[in-house]
Amino acid sequence: xxxxxxxxxxxxxxxxxxxxxxxxxxxxxxxxxxxxxxxxxxxxxxxxxxxxxxxxxxxxxxxxxxxxxxxxxxxxxxxxxxxxxxxxxxxxxxxxxxxxxxxxx
Length: 105
Hints:
Distance between the termini: 49 Å
Number of strands: 0
Low-confidence stretches: none
Strand content: under 5%
Number of helices: 4
Structural class: mainly alpha
Radius of gyration: 17 Å
Number of domains: 1
C-alpha cells in the first residue's frame, strides 16, 4: 500500500491512507464514464460522487471491524458498476425494508 512507504512524512502517510481508495474510485469512475461515451461534466460529477461514497466507507468498515483496505475494492466495484446501478440497488433494498416494516404495524 502506498501509505506504508517509510519515505513519506507522517502527515502524508495519514492522508494517503484515507484518500487512496476514493482517488482510485474517482479515476475508475471517470475513465468508465468517458469510455462509455458520456459527457465529460456528467462523468466528472459521477466520479466525484463515487469518490465521496468510497470515503464514507472507511469509517463504516472500521466500525464493522473489517480491514479498511476493503474500501479500495468496494469503491472500485461501485465505480465500475456506476452510481445509477448503486441507486437502483439501494432503492430496491429500502422498498423491501419499508414494506416489511409497514406490514408489521
